[in-house]
Amino acid sequence: MEFIDKNLNDYAENHSQEASDVLKELHRYTYAKVLTPRMLSGHLQGRFLSFISQFIQANNILEIGTYTGYSAICLAEGLEKDGQLHTIEINKELQEQALTYFEKAQLNNKIHMHIGHALDIIPNLDCTFDLVFIDADKENYAHYYEAVLPKLRKGGVIIADNVLWSGKVLDQNQLDKDIETKALDAFNKKVHQDNRVQNLLLPVRDGLMLLIKN
Ligand SMILES: C[S@@+](CC[C@H](N)C(=O)[O-])C[C@H]1O[C@@H](n2cnc3c(N)ncnc32)[C@H](O)[C@@H]1O
Fold first, then answer.
1. Who lines ligand 1 at CB under 6 A?
2. Domain boundaries, the chain
3. Helix, strand, or coil here: 112?
4. What is the mean pLDDT of residues 88-117?
5. How remote is the CA of residue 134 from the centroid of ligand 1, in Å?
6. How far apart, in Å, are the Cα atoms of 31 and each of 3, 7, 40, 112, 142?
7. In this structure, are residues 76 and 103 in contact, taking their beta carbons and an 8 Å threshold?
8. Mean pLDDT throughout 90-105?
9. pLDDT, tens digit (0-9, with 9 covering 90-100), for 145-172
10. Residue 82 Cα to ligand 1 middle (Å)
11. Which CATH architecture has domain 6-213?
């Protein structure tokens, strides 16, 4: 489901900063060769992630859900000079492709890819993060939130993707039977009521929940 008219989306893309040639190639590669390419953030959301990373002058970023590395590259583009990004992916088969593109983007010295379940890896990351991007399995969003919040600096930002889940969060039938829809709705309600953060749900692409730690 598209939340905005395709022509308007194209207009927004055409009036936003262009993606790098490496990102364009990775986009093409993912759509040609990898299963479920819709998972990739895409041009507009990628520019948004890059913009936020630069805007908050991030030194340390955590991403949960690397996939082919598109969003990791976008986020890392905005890092400060000596900044670092940790990205976690459970599927080892995606590692080689992602590392190839981190190198092509000349960001391999800034991006550290961890393979495994994010809930096992996060506790071992000895880092205070300025920005966290949650974009992995939807059932665990609330767990990822609790795991990363203590590691986020005051004023740090969390962005969670797909929180409108193609509009299914409005469908009672889906809320009753679909585990992912139920988990995302519970996550949205949890953070909305949580006085440890300020929240803003942006209907960009599939819904982005933005959180600032108080
Ligand atoms: C939506 S895709 C990420 C897309 C990527 N962030 C982008 O925008 O290009 C979600 C990824 O999370 C990974 N994933 C799922 N469960 C995970 C877990 N428990 N820990 C780490 N990664 C996980 C999946 O294998 C998949 O590659």
1. 39-41, 64-65, 67, 70-71, 88-91, 94, 117-118, 135-137, 140
2. 6-213
3. strand
4. 98
5. 9
6. 21, 21, 9, 24, 30
7. no
8. 98
9. 999 999 999 999 999 999 999 999 999 9
10. 26
11. 3-Layer(aba) Sandwich (3.40)
